[in-house]
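Figure-free illustration: sequence to structure, shown twice.
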Amino acid sequence: MTEQEKIRREKLEELKKLGVNPYPAELFPINNFSIDLIEDYKENSKVTIAGRIMSRRIQGNASFAEIQDSKGRIQVYFNRDEICKDNDKSKYNIIYKKLLDIGDIIGINGRMFKTKVGEITVLVKDFKILNKSLRPLPLPKVDSDGNEYDSFSDLEQRYRHRYLDLILNSQVKDIFVKRTKIINTIRNFLNKKSYLEVETPILQPIPGGASARPFITHHNALDIPLYLRISDELFLKKLIVGGLEAVYEFSRDFRNEGMDKNHNPEFTILELYVAYKDYFWMMDLTESLIEKVCIELNGKTKIQYDSKLIDFKAPYEKISMFDAIKKFTGYDISRMDENELRKICNDMSIEVDESMGEGKLIDAIFGSKCEKKFINPTFIIDYPKSMSPLTKQHRSNPNLTERFELFINGMEIANAYSELNDPIDQLERFENQLELGKKGDDEAMFIDMDFIKSLEYGMPPTSGIGIGLDRLIMLMTNQTSIQEVLFFPQMKPLRNEPVISNDAKIVLNKLQKKGECDFNIFKSEFDFSNKKWDKLTKELRVKDLISISKNENNLLIKPS
């Protein structure tokens, strides 16, 4: 515990002794928000606000402070004689001046006015402590020239402590407000078409609907393995079989795979399935939807993303998978078998392994040489059958499927099919996936016999799509990392700091700065008795924080 934290806890106890509850249970009747008061300023109007103290300037019997609420910040003015009308001035002199800190949350009743320099301000008539903060905020520092430094900007700290990020970096909150607006725009777009929003299981007996490595867990009561869903596709198609002709879900999916700026193991996807439609119809719908999202969020179809100008105005370019590969590599792979594909991968220095079948080899070529080329929205259409085990065979080419993926800024944003509804063909495709699994492909699909059974009862012609919402939100908010658009991105847990005494901390901190050194010389730098020193070194050795060894001449000590 730091000195500041100790002081704040002492203030907490002082408040309690004065009969002030630092964590009151009753509601505080907020009637106003900071930005609204500034934008719709009314002289001398009564206001009730609440928020966190972000700065204070105490000048004897008066003080200016800044309060931050959910919408922004506003200046407030504390005057002792306004707050304390009778002879007892303790609420200002003791509670406000001495026992409150930056970071505390308070409620305020007051009136609006403008200072001599014209700044809109709340004159505090009364205040109430709503929460006593026990840790100081890591606020940026300002040097003598007014330059700000040491801001809360370290990426790892921001992601690990998103609550602080939201308090200290106002632009972060704006990203997540926009995230909700994007999701609501999509939901309204689909609801106006009378499509039905549904929920399907997250824990599944078979991880179906995509080629991906699943997370596995165990259900104790049923004594069976269960998987976190990698996709909700098969369940939504079962609903189409059941007669629900248009269904969608904002799905939380989980894939036990790598992490980078475009991937998080837990992510959000929109899945939509509409009966009696095909992939051409779905392309039109997708264009309309994404164009609308862009306009609703930005007021126009063109946005600046990183250093690029991206235009979301429909219609979007369309190019087949094979044509795209030929355009950017010079190879026509449309008639190549697995061995030929493996050879040209080697020729182009594309990393492959023996577990990869034809579909994954083609995907590797496209991913390595093509996808980064598509900046403006582009539909990649007509995928090989080996890459699309859930997709209907192309109506004019039996080696292809009616599938498209939407690429924007070199990222896959959406994946869509004319859905395979032939149960015999579907079972054969699943069996081919099973063979890939035997070869070592840990992303190969499982066979879902209940899904096959549902198809045998009959699923109407259907088109389906999955849109990666996190990536779409990245684009629309000009963020280059998926972690920026997730409240709590996945992070490796920090090793818990061992609990040690304050004296042991002093010894350890000094040793960590020195590194390995002579035990007796290091010991002489502290004013501890031999008994105390033995106790401290034992404490640190038991926690595996230091090691003591002997060479030919000396006893050595070093941090672990």
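We now fold a second protein in the same way, so the two outputs can be compared directly.
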Amino acid sequence: MSMFCYQCQETVKGIGCTVKGVCGKTEDVAKLQDLLIYTIKGVSKIVAEGKIDIKELDELNYQFLNSLFMTITNANFDENSIEAQIKKMMVLRNTIRESVNIENLHDAAIFVVKTRENMLLKASTVGVLATVNEDIRSLRELIIYGLKGMAAYAEHAWNLGKKNFEVLSFMYEALAATLDDSLTVDDLVQLTLKTGEIGVQAMALLDEANTSKYGHPEITKVNIGVRNNPAILISGHDLTDLEQLLEQTAGTGVDVYTHSEMLPAHYYPKFKKYEHFAGNYGNAWWKQVEEFESFNGPILFTTNCIVPPRKEEIRNRIFTTGATGYPGCTHIVADENGKKDFSEIIDLAKTLPSPTEIETGIIVGGFAHNQVLSLADQIVEAVKSGAIKKFFVMAGCDGRMKSRSYYTEFAQKLPNDTVILTAGCAKYRYNKLNLPDINGIPRVLDAGQCNDSYSLAVIALKLKEVFGLDDINELPIAFNIAWYEQKAVIVLLALLYLGVKNIHLGPTLPGFLSPNVAKVLVENFGIATIGEVEDDIALFMNM
């Protein structure tokens, strides 16, 4: 088998990609990512067994987070950058290893590879399938994918100056644990739930980082049409990159548009001062192939999700930064102070036509926890009066599968006395539907990025308190969540930790869940997959 990867929802036949990733990554990229994960497992083993105080190891900590982030689906397709990261982590690994006295270290902490050829050979022996027991493998990967999602949130927070060493310490310990053959299935189940607990902390950290710098999101109307100016399209999730781009484009005559998961940036008060922050262009990540062509200007990827461009002309307009990378695309690196020079992108934008309009109108969003809770009295009254019968949490990811039309149909067919709470790019399946409001309350309340799913948990917990309930599952809230990549995994684990049950997950259950692990989730938490729209609505309304 040339490669094996089953970390995303679109993996081949729900089993695994074995020749080339559906995402577009090659065999070599997949193997190098496997080796990068193995390398940082070795780092984690040294940190955990050596009881190393990580508080003074900023370079190691940041590169550890970045390594995990680079392996998230659709983040980095550049073999050279992944190889360079492996070498960087091996140097850092060897440095901390010399500072402790540990006997019988795991191979991950001591192996040596110097050439690309040797890296690929080593990777073939340490990938996912190196764990023979199916259930142990399933739980190890579930934990690792949760940690990848957690790393994304922690890195975003780090870029805003917020760190949580309890979160970081757990991440090292948990990743090290995936090398421990003495751990049983029960041990790993408990570690999985612990991952969800720490995931809540990571999401809270990022929420604090975003809101302390940019203000609390507020109800905002976002233009989805275009202006007649040259423009840059920014995609991904990192708000610090957006802020720097807006600062550097101010007064240049170049507009900035958001794409996909960057849409919620418009909801933050601090970004509203930029008159050239023009609006949102396009839809979810997977439509970028055609939308990038019509945008005409350069595109900046701050994080995932990259779809391999089909045309060289578009590739020449794509820039990457942070954990992202794509062969042939210019990668912009921060200086020692975290500053990035976007002048090359700005100069290119000035030479290219303005965006071609693909739609018109507005999107309303900004319903993060602070904004929603300010409307708590209105919402509670609507629930008590019967005007709102049910809330549906429809957060998560969008994707290419035709079966995802389920979520559009589901939203369309929901009774008019229901409200959708959403976060993540899954919202693009229904955020442009003309759904009637309820006494002035919109039927779709967008809390923001997948990173902002924390807001939905805060809202649910606050409603539990307001209604004087003992159990979050007693609320009139149903969870029908779409997933695609690893940030959705940590959101799911966080919800399980918070005690949420009867979550429907779709459009398919993860391929990395063995039958026995899936059975545990079904029996203990009521996890289920989606069915027919009408049947699911009837089921949810009667819960």
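Summary for the second example: The radius of gyration is 23 Å.
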